[in-house]
Amino acid sequence: MGAFPQCFYHMGCEEMSYTTIKKWRDTELEKHDASSQALNVFHDSVMKKVFETALKKQKALHGPPPCLYSWFVMGSAGRFEQAIISDQDHGLVYEEDSESAAQYFIRLGKELADGLNEAGYPFCDGNVMSSNPVWCKSKSKWNEQLSKWLKEESFESIRFLLIFYDARVLVGEEEYIFELKQHVHDYTNQNPHFLERLLENTQHVKKAVGFFHQFLTETHGSYAGSIDLKQSGFFPYVNNIRLLALKESVNATSTLSRIEELTKLPNYQRDLSWCKGEFEKLLHYRLQYHKKMTENYDDIHYLDVKELPKDEKKDMKQILLNGQRLQDYTQAVIQGMMRK
Amino acid sequence: MKEIMFSLNSVWLVLGALLVILMQGGFILLEAGSTRMKNAGHIAGKTVFTFGLASIVFWAVGYGFIFGGNSNFFIGLSDFFYSGDQADGMPYSTAAFFLFQLAFAGISLTIAFGGFAERAKLSAYLVFAILFSVLVYPVVAHWIWGGGWLAEHGKQDFAGSTVVHLTGAMAAFAATILLKPRIGKFNKNGTTNNIFGHNQVYTALGVIVLWVGWFGFNGGSTFVVDDGFFGFVALNTNIAAGAGAIAALIISWMVLGKSDIPTILNGALAGLVAITASCAFVETWAAVLIGFVAGILVFYSVKFFDKLKVDDPIYALSVHGAAGVWGTLSTGLFATPELAAVGKPGLFYGGGFSQLGVQAMGVSVSALYAFAVSFILLYAMKKVMKGLRVSEEEEIIGLDVSEHGNYGYPEAFITNEEKNRIAN
User: Fold this and answer.
1) Domain Ammonium transporter AmtB-like, which positions (chain B) (predicted)?
2) In this predicted complex, what is the ipTM?
3) Which residues is A227 bridged to in the sheet?
4) d(CA B356, CA B347)
5) Is some CB atom of chain B closer than 8 A to the CB atom of A207?
6) Does B191 contact A211 at a Cβ distance shorter than 8 Å?
7) Which fold has domain A17-189?
8) What domain count does chain B have?
């Protein structure tokens, strides 16, 4: 890790602002983009710095936290799969179920969202942030909310559940999240049909390889000639592996470690052994392409396939086709389980 | 018996004329659906007045140029301001025949205006409606149907793949080149934007109205009801349209990964346009094949014109142009000895290349004439009328307001203040 500005280590330093963090992030970023692993370790450290600053501000205004808590990230950050640019997805869970605690942590959540935004992690369009009461709750309220989501089975509640399932603790009590996830595992073990409902939710995938083995690129608009790497490349891997992890009560959150955990189980050893390498390649390629162009958040989802060397084109097609294969496999596993 | 047949034939021709005139309604739905709300009233309304203009011009000179006596290499020169007189020996009412032919001239003009959509001034429609109906359509129609030089070569074009569709499409091509693309169609980096039509239901309904109207277009072109041959023509017409829709669905699914609705609709129309020339000359299996090829051709043609940076909002160039060319050539391949009442059998029926050659020559000369004359006329109009196109501001607010002072969909555009005023 590169040298942090001195004042960061100096308690009570006035200049320890989000802007300083942003500057440091921007200059240090390229030292940490050799691999997705290194990049995500770096993102974690930036987000933790933002948390320190936010907490300090909060303490100065409203005193110390009234109870134990945990701050967790979700989305690509939760899965340890952030690209160079990512928006923010995070939440808070705290011990004490009281009005005053709720008020304290929602203020902290607001500070965190603003801080992350200033530090280079844009606000989440879907409002999945600790500043939103939906994602900032006491342990008992979180349990109630999860039960509601599980029983509701609506489009939105399922989306929320799947987002929550990628939660990874950055600061505070790790057990809180494990306990909450255990709640989800218990429910799905007792209600296996729920997995089928989740399967439906992830069935729609934007195909990127066509009948003639050609890339199905955007035909119109400013991304004409590109494929949507997020929707067509990442989603099939991320969503299907998450679903299998949920089925097998695997606690890991990154797609790679979920694959690792799954392949330890006899059923998956043979069928998923190919998967890890493909996903690693996908992460690697995205990082390589995006070092060249990181102008805005939308850009990073698109990959101009015309620019690729021939062997990479072939490789990318194989990765995309294997994503479709994983989709079929997951469907067969879930539906096979239902028939038993 | 002769009188009964005369009456039946005349009824059949007027029925055909009604169906073809109804196709204007199909075009209104097709064009309005394929374009944006702010231009809907304009696009629909202008079709009515340009058809009115075309009717008067056809009565005054168009009919005489095509079918008149004293004809030369170029045009006929009698029967101007047609009085409704019965021509000697005609086995049906000449007035019914006139009406039927008038309807065709109107369709060709409406196709030409496809290339004008969403950016041409109303006055450009008015002037070009007259010029096209005097100088473009009647000449090609005379050459092929009025006993002109291509008719003497035995050019096969039963109901007008060349005469009506290709002629209209070539004028549309000239117009779209001179008008230039709509604002926002092409990006600086060379990519193309999809300017979505505002109502796919209208567009699909338009296709079905046209499809039904086509039974008048092709079936009516038998002119007579003897032997019920029009039934066979209608059969070929219908299966070609079906094959075109299926082919377009398949090709868009294979190439784009999804079955694209506008492509499917274009495929049905392309099948209809292609079978128009050949519906009376080919066997049913060939009709299916002709329609199928047209459905694939129209898909690639749309891509091709996009690549050329030609903005063709209603796909007139691909549906009526590309498919019109293919349809005209198809009789040179598939015309059978029994059915080829005009010209010779096609390549696959022992006719060799001679009919195919006639078709190729006819289609090229007709296309070239229609394009060149339309281009010259429009170019002259552009100079004299100080441009064919509305201003940038007018294009952005929409032609409903800029050209007519009224919205096709008022509730969608008027301000809340105005809404309140009306409510109180």
Assistant:
1) 11-409
2) 0.73
3) A303
4) 7
5) yes
6) no
7) Beta Polymerase; domain 2 (3.30.460)
8) 1
